[in-house]
Amino acid sequence: NVGTDVETSLASLALAEQYPFFFAAGGIHPHDAKTADPKSLSELEEILKHKKMVAIGEVGLDFFRDHSPQEKQKEVLRHFINLQKKIKKPLVLHCRDAYEDLIALFKEEIPPPYQGIMHCFSSDKPMMTRLVDLGFYISFAGPLTSIFWPTAKLVILRGLKAKSKLVSSLIRMVWPSTTKVSAVVLILLITPQTLG
Protein backbone atom coordinates (compact mmCIF):
# COMPACT_ATOMS: atom_id res chain seq x y z
CA ASN A 1 0.00 0.00 0.00
CA VAL A 2 1.42 3.41 -0.99
CA GLY A 3 1.29 6.69 0.91
CA THR A 4 1.38 10.08 -0.79
CA ASP A 5 1.81 12.30 2.29
CA VAL A 6 2.36 11.85 6.04
CA GLU A 7 -1.28 10.97 6.77
CA THR A 8 -1.66 8.35 4.02
CA SER A 9 1.80 6.93 4.74
CA LEU A 10 0.77 6.40 8.37
CA ALA A 11 -2.49 4.81 7.20
CA SER A 12 -0.53 2.47 4.89
CA LEU A 13 1.75 1.52 7.76
CA ALA A 14 -1.25 0.85 10.03
CA LEU A 15 -2.64 -1.61 7.46
CA ALA A 16 0.75 -3.27 7.13
CA GLU A 17 0.99 -3.69 10.89
CA GLN A 18 -2.54 -5.12 11.04
CA TYR A 19 -2.05 -7.74 8.32
CA PRO A 20 1.13 -9.83 8.06
CA PHE A 21 0.81 -10.10 4.26
CA PHE A 22 0.63 -6.29 3.75
CA PHE A 23 3.66 -4.07 3.27
CA ALA A 24 3.74 -0.32 2.80
CA ALA A 25 5.54 2.58 1.14
CA GLY A 26 5.48 6.23 2.13
CA GLY A 27 6.36 9.55 0.59
CA ILE A 28 5.04 12.84 -0.76
CA HIS A 29 3.39 12.74 -4.18
CA PRO A 30 4.57 15.50 -6.56
CA HIS A 31 1.07 17.00 -6.53
CA ASP A 32 1.51 17.56 -2.79
CA ALA A 33 5.13 18.71 -2.89
CA LYS A 34 4.05 22.28 -2.11
CA THR A 35 2.94 21.08 1.34
CA ALA A 36 6.31 19.48 2.18
CA ASP A 37 8.20 21.17 4.98
CA PRO A 38 11.05 20.10 7.30
CA LYS A 39 8.57 18.69 9.85
CA SER A 40 6.70 16.47 7.36
CA LEU A 41 9.93 15.29 5.72
CA SER A 42 11.37 14.41 9.14
CA GLU A 43 8.17 12.55 10.11
CA LEU A 44 8.29 10.55 6.89
CA GLU A 45 11.93 9.67 7.45
CA GLU A 46 11.01 8.14 10.81
CA ILE A 47 7.97 6.33 9.36
CA LEU A 48 10.09 4.91 6.53
CA LYS A 49 12.52 3.30 9.01
CA HIS A 50 9.79 0.86 10.07
CA LYS A 51 10.47 -2.72 8.94
CA LYS A 52 7.05 -2.98 7.22
CA MET A 53 7.82 0.12 5.10
CA VAL A 54 9.55 -1.51 2.14
CA ALA A 55 9.78 1.42 -0.29
CA ILE A 56 9.82 5.21 -0.54
CA GLY A 57 6.91 6.55 -2.53
CA GLU A 58 4.95 7.57 -4.22
CA VAL A 59 7.35 10.39 -5.05
CA GLY A 60 8.52 12.02 -8.28
CA LEU A 61 7.82 14.80 -10.76
CA ASP A 62 4.58 15.76 -12.51
CA PHE A 63 4.93 18.67 -14.93
CA PHE A 64 1.69 17.78 -16.72
CA ARG A 65 -0.69 18.79 -13.96
CA ASP A 66 1.69 21.18 -12.14
CA HIS A 67 -0.25 21.09 -8.85
CA SER A 68 3.02 22.06 -7.15
CA PRO A 69 5.77 24.35 -8.47
CA GLN A 70 8.33 22.41 -10.50
CA GLU A 71 11.28 23.59 -8.40
CA LYS A 72 9.52 22.49 -5.21
CA GLN A 73 8.83 19.08 -6.76
CA LYS A 74 12.54 18.75 -7.59
CA GLU A 75 13.53 19.81 -4.07
CA VAL A 76 11.26 17.19 -2.50
CA LEU A 77 12.37 14.43 -4.90
CA ARG A 78 16.02 15.33 -4.21
CA HIS A 79 15.30 14.86 -0.50
CA PHE A 80 13.88 11.36 -1.10
CA ILE A 81 16.75 10.34 -3.41
CA ASN A 82 19.18 11.25 -0.63
CA LEU A 83 17.01 9.47 1.92
CA GLN A 84 17.17 6.37 -0.26
CA LYS A 85 20.96 6.46 -0.03
CA LYS A 86 20.61 6.53 3.75
CA ILE A 87 17.92 3.90 4.40
CA LYS A 88 18.50 1.68 1.33
CA LYS A 89 14.88 1.25 0.22
CA PRO A 90 13.72 1.49 -3.42
CA LEU A 91 11.67 4.38 -4.79
CA VAL A 92 8.15 4.17 -6.24
CA LEU A 93 8.30 6.95 -8.82
CA HIS A 94 5.53 8.99 -10.39
CA CYS A 95 6.68 10.82 -13.50
CA ARG A 96 4.63 12.69 -16.06
CA ASP A 97 6.05 15.01 -18.72
CA ALA A 98 9.26 15.24 -16.69
CA TYR A 99 11.40 12.21 -17.58
CA GLU A 100 14.47 14.20 -18.71
CA ASP A 101 14.34 16.31 -15.54
CA LEU A 102 13.95 13.20 -13.40
CA ILE A 103 16.97 11.48 -14.97
CA ALA A 104 19.08 14.64 -14.65
CA LEU A 105 18.15 15.00 -11.00
CA PHE A 106 19.12 11.41 -10.23
CA LYS A 107 22.45 11.83 -12.03
CA GLU A 108 23.18 14.96 -9.95
CA GLU A 109 22.60 13.08 -6.70
CA ILE A 110 23.79 9.47 -7.09
CA PRO A 111 25.47 7.26 -9.70
CA PRO A 112 23.50 4.49 -11.43
CA PRO A 113 22.27 1.82 -11.18
CA TYR A 114 19.20 3.25 -9.49
CA GLN A 115 16.76 1.40 -7.27
CA GLY A 116 13.13 2.04 -8.06
CA ILE A 117 10.13 1.47 -10.25
CA MET A 118 8.55 3.89 -12.69
CA HIS A 119 4.92 3.59 -11.61
CA CYS A 120 2.28 3.82 -14.41
CA PHE A 121 4.84 4.49 -17.15
CA SER A 122 3.58 6.96 -19.77
CA SER A 123 6.44 7.72 -22.15
CA ASP A 124 7.85 5.91 -25.18
CA LYS A 125 10.08 2.92 -25.91
CA PRO A 126 13.38 4.86 -26.18
CA MET A 127 12.74 6.41 -22.76
CA MET A 128 11.75 3.04 -21.34
CA THR A 129 15.02 1.57 -22.62
CA ARG A 130 17.06 4.43 -21.10
CA LEU A 131 15.36 4.02 -17.73
CA VAL A 132 15.84 0.26 -17.69
CA ASP A 133 19.52 0.75 -18.61
CA LEU A 134 19.82 3.04 -15.56
CA GLY A 135 18.44 0.29 -13.33
CA PHE A 136 14.77 1.26 -13.00
CA TYR A 137 11.90 -1.16 -13.33
CA ILE A 138 8.89 -0.12 -15.42
CA SER A 139 5.22 -0.75 -14.63
CA PHE A 140 2.24 -0.44 -16.91
CA ALA A 141 -1.15 -0.01 -15.30
CA GLY A 142 -4.12 2.35 -15.54
CA PRO A 143 -2.75 4.60 -18.33
CA LEU A 144 -3.06 1.69 -20.76
CA THR A 145 -6.84 1.93 -20.41
CA SER A 146 -7.01 5.65 -21.15
CA ILE A 147 -8.50 6.92 -24.39
CA PHE A 148 -6.06 9.83 -24.08
CA TRP A 149 -2.97 7.63 -24.27
CA PRO A 150 -1.97 7.60 -27.97
CA THR A 151 -2.17 4.21 -29.62
CA ALA A 152 1.36 4.76 -30.91
CA LYS A 153 2.67 4.45 -27.36
CA LEU A 154 1.20 0.97 -27.08
CA VAL A 155 3.91 -0.23 -29.46
CA ILE A 156 6.28 -0.19 -26.48
CA LEU A 157 4.50 -3.35 -25.40
CA ARG A 158 5.11 -5.05 -28.74
CA GLY A 159 8.21 -7.08 -29.17
CA LEU A 160 8.69 -7.85 -25.49
CA LYS A 161 9.83 -11.42 -25.22
CA ALA A 162 6.98 -13.65 -24.07
CA LYS A 163 9.48 -16.06 -22.52
CA SER A 164 11.32 -13.32 -20.61
CA LYS A 165 11.87 -13.63 -16.92
CA LEU A 166 9.68 -10.94 -15.46
CA VAL A 167 10.68 -10.08 -11.94
CA SER A 168 7.04 -9.81 -11.01
CA SER A 169 3.60 -9.74 -12.54
CA LEU A 170 0.65 -8.48 -10.59
CA ILE A 171 -3.00 -8.33 -11.40
CA ARG A 172 -4.72 -5.32 -9.95
CA MET A 173 -8.13 -3.74 -10.27
CA VAL A 174 -7.94 -0.33 -11.95
CA TRP A 175 -10.51 1.99 -13.44
CA PRO A 176 -10.36 2.25 -17.22
CA SER A 177 -10.98 5.48 -19.09
CA THR A 178 -14.73 4.91 -19.11
CA THR A 179 -16.63 5.20 -15.85
CA LYS A 180 -19.05 2.36 -16.65
CA VAL A 181 -16.96 -0.65 -15.65
CA SER A 182 -13.71 -1.58 -14.02
CA ALA A 183 -11.05 -3.67 -15.70
CA VAL A 184 -8.33 -6.01 -14.62
CA VAL A 185 -4.99 -4.92 -16.05
CA LEU A 186 -1.80 -6.91 -15.98
CA ILE A 187 1.00 -4.81 -14.56
CA LEU A 188 4.26 -5.83 -16.18
CA LEU A 189 7.55 -5.02 -14.56
CA ILE A 190 9.95 -4.49 -17.43
CA THR A 191 13.51 -5.54 -16.74
CA PRO A 192 16.67 -5.74 -18.86
CA GLN A 193 15.87 -9.43 -19.44
CA THR A 194 12.48 -8.46 -20.83
CA LEU A 195 13.95 -6.00 -23.31
CA GLY A 196 16.97 -8.11 -24.28
Topology:
Layout: H1 6-18, E1 24-26, H2 38-48, E2 53-62, H3 70-87, E3 91-96, H4 99-109, E4 116-119, H5 125-133, E5 137-139, E6 169-174, E7 183-190, H6 192-195
Helix pairs in contact: 1-2, 3-4
Concise account of the structure shown:
This protein is an alpha/beta fold. It contains 6 helices and 7 strands, in the order αβαβαβαβαβββα.
Describe the overall structure:
The chain is an alpha/beta fold and 196 residues long. The chain has helices at 6-18, 38-48, 70-87, 99-109, 125-133, 192-195, and strands at residues 24-26, 53-62, 91-96, 116-119, 137-139, 169-174, 183-190. The protein has a 7-stranded mixed sheet with strand order 1-2-3-4-5-7-6. It is globular, with a radius of gyration of 17 Å. The two termini are 31 Å apart.
Q: Indicate the percent of residues in helices.
A: 25-40%
Radius of gyration: 17 Å
On the 0 to 100 scale, the average pLDDT is: 78
Strand arrangement within the widest β-sheet reads 1-2-3-4-5-7-6
Major beta sheet, specifics?
7 strands, mixed
Q: Total number of β-strand segments?
A: 7
Low-confidence stretches: 159-196
What structural class should be given to the helix and strand makeup? alpha/beta
Q: Calculate the terminal CA-CA distance, rounded to whole Å.
A: 31 Å
Form type: globular
N-to-C series of helices and strands: HEHEHEHEHEEEH
Number of discrete helical segments = 6
Q: Determine the strand fraction and express it as a percent band.
A: 15-25%
